[in-house]
Amino acid sequence: MERAELESIALATGAAEKCGGFVFLCDPQWPPAQRAEFTRLTQSKIGSRKSKIKRGWLCLATGGTGGTLKFARHDERTLTAAVGGFCRHFGLQRVNAVGVLPLHHVSGFMALLRCRETGGNHVAWDWRRLEAGQRPAIRGGSWTISLVPTQLQRLLRSRAATAWLRKFALVLVGGGPVWPDLADAAARAKLRIVLSYGLTETAAMVAAQRPEQFLAGDRSNGRVLPHATVNIGRGGVVRVGGRSLFRGYFGERTQRRRFATGDLGALDAEGRLEVLGRRDAIIITGGKKVHPALVEAALRATGKFAEVVVLGRPHPEWGEEVVACYPAGKQAVTAGLLLESLAAYQRPKRFIAVRDWPRNAQGKVNRAQLRAAVSGLADPGGERRG
User: Fold this and answer.
1) Are the CB atoms for 67 and 368 separated by under 8 Å?
2) What is the DSSP letter of 303?
3) CATH number for the domain formed by residue range(s) 3-277
4) Cβ-contact 106, 58 below 8 angstroms
5) pLDDT digit string, tens, across residues 225-261
6) Residues 284/320, Cβ–Cβ less than 8 Å
7) 282-385 falls under which CATH superfamily?
8) Burial class, 118, CB count within 10 angstroms (exposed 0-12 / middle 13-18 / buried 19+)
9) Which residues, at least 6 apart from 35, have a Cβ–Cβ distance to it below 8 Å?
10) 360: which of 52, 130, 317, 321 lies 20 to 30 Å off by Cα?
11) With a threshold of 0.70, does the pTM exceed it?
């Protein structure tokens, strides 16, 4: 793919903005504060310059939900490498996709790009319409769809939606951990799920299963795609490289050759990646480490939570205390909840029902906003509705 074609595709999304020699994919729904942050960032680094940027000219937003807005710099070479690796891994010559993720997000944009690069069909579809039962017809060839775990969970509640998902050759699930009950429900429904791992910095997935592996019981994030490299660095940090790796963040001069992610993981003897959670999400309570994903899985297994997020909250004695947050109006939680699979230090000390549950455009919870809301609450002394 040549630059002119990629730039045309980006601009046609309606989410792209040209500034200097760069093209930025921006969220049209950014609040005023984030829009102002984008303006300050670009003006401080570009000003009135209109120079031609040869590499890293297409900037994809990352990190906006965690605080400071950043852009990962890609171009026709990095993105084409990601498309090629995807096709080789799954043995596809032509990719057809129903796109329900936002086109300004790397997962939504890469779904579109795979179709354009291989001559396939891309059907853009609003998530709210899909959740409401309006499903596009898919005919001819193999089709793919990318979902985050919460979206998969909601579709599985409908028999008609589940039957529709069975028509897809690949149901790509990423953007967060898939809890055991959800994976088991998808397997029972005979969905061709692909658990994967990727980042904006790698132009989406760098590791993925094949659907037959999921149906056979594999719950890892799969093997590394042919265009990428993955290894585990000091402290268990996932490190990635390869031809789809970004050129660096906007405003940086560093040329990236390998990138230490914020994720912890492990590679087994067969080369399968298992992502254990975010390094910065680890809770240290009384000197012991707690992985939120492990606690969330145990809470979901009780059947009392449609959605739950485990966070660390400052505590004067223990450093942090483990708290479990869930959307208000859902099933209530009792103080006597049994969590025998967890050690005492791993069990939540507070259950907090949150009225305004923060989500982004993908339907994923905004953990930074949730943490800020929970940190501001006074000691509830038990279950709390925030």
Assistant:
1) yes
2) T
3) 3.40.50.12780
4) no
5) 999 999 999 889 999 999 999 999 998 876 778 999 9
6) yes
7) ANL, C-terminal domain (3.30.300.30)
8) middle
9) none
10) 321
11) yes
